[in-house]
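Below: protein 1.
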Amino acid sequence: MPQESMYAAVDIGTNKIISIVARLGPEGELKPLGTGVAPSNGVQQGIIDDFSEVKNSLQESMTECMRYLGRNPVDRYHVVVNGDHLVSVNSTEMLGSGEEVVMITEQRLRSLMSSSSGSLEQQLDSRSEQTLHMIPMRYRLDGMAGVRNPTGLDTSELQLEAHIVRGMSVPLGNTVRALQSCKAKVDGMIAHPLASAEGVLTADEREMGVVVVDIGAGTIKTAIYREGSPFFSSVVPMGGNQLTRDLAVAMRVPYQMAEDLKVQFGHALPDAISGTEEVLIPATQVQPKRMVLRRELCEPLYLRSLQVLKLISEELYRAQISAMPLGGIVLTGGASRMPGLAEMASRGLRSDVRVGIPLWYAGLPESLRQPEFSAVLGALQWAVKHRNRTDQERPRGSGERNWSPASLFRRPFARSGSRRAAAEPEFEDE
């Protein structure tokens, strides 16, 4: 099996590390070949804080993933990166002098964009920040707005609007070192909000405009699309683990027992549960087993879910959107599976809400058709979509050890202009 037709991705999450390898078929379809899931130790809110623990967990996940792949395992991975150090900005840059009419070719466009990146690089401290993505949103040719693809058109002046995602060099570098310590190489880095969106969105949703919210164990990732492209992405350091902690305190049980109770009996809307339904709380070292009303058990989950949705509302306000996109909201990530959460979000945010599972077209096993796999499967699809560019720009030779994540992607343009003010989305308490 030629290695060039195989792609691998890894998501180093707060609760678990997921590795997956897939083969690219003749029609561009991806077929999963192996998956590895291991408990994640040494990660807090998406950021590595114990290198040796992460190394062991990562090795366990990757070994399980490659167990049945024979003697030629994949050693290059696309990595989903997370953490509230990831920030996004929209930039506008003018390309061309306005004096000479030229035809825009792909090569000329890349060259012009590369030459225009210096202004932002001068603003950034390259020792502390790295650019992950520069995603063109739209172009303006000689004053004509709304151009999606200028390739092949003549123009004397080309203006580009781009969505830029960057992050801190230290946590990104620690992620690279973690893979290198497992004798693996980084083929690309994908910001978590964009990886999740890649995994769950349809083309129609991107065009209509849509909000993707991935609620993981330690972070909430938001990506907002309009006219086919992302224009806002963010990471907030709170997630499903906080719901579990609240439940552990309220029920006076250990954390893992609270997690099991949340998964089995949790509901974001206690009023939707029968007032007589009871739940058996197992015995612990400090108290005997007991029966409690399920509504009582779900009350702390309701209160924390309300706070989660208010945080989402605040992110929509930061994005300065004047109205909810027509595509509504897509919830994904492990915490999105909790019953009642989608309904609660629909009521509070006054929008259509669905729970997104990975969109896959080549026999995805049922075990992977879950929201918690959206980002890692989205990273695989991202890798295939950008494979030509990645093949040209991947790090090579002995210089890999000093590789900067910015080298994998086009560098961004200078930030200019200010965003329009917009009314804050109204959120109603339940």
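Below: protein 2.
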Amino acid sequence: MIELDPEDDKLVTLAHAAAARIGAPKGAAVRDQDGRTYAAASVRLPHLRLSALQLAVAQAVAAGAETLEAAAVVVSHGSVSEVVDAQGLAAVRDLSDAAPVYVVTEDGVSRVAG
């Protein structure tokens, strides 16, 4: 498992808080090129479904982010392969090929490749 630096650990804390605020199973947070952070929980409505990571990236872009430095996704249960959705990861990659994407499960912290 991975040990996070304080800035990346802050993303994990924000992602946990976003999920806990509405009782969602997943939360995510991203940090942009200016160090601003955006946190979100997954949305499941009859006509709108967004992963926490998709929504966090969308918030960053809507606020003017041009690149991302890092992202974190937390989940209360599940494996790493179930946590990060392909579209959410693709949205991160739209803004940065190099930004680490950390996944936090009950087993600890991992980093997503790709």
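DSSP finds four helices and seven strands in the chain.
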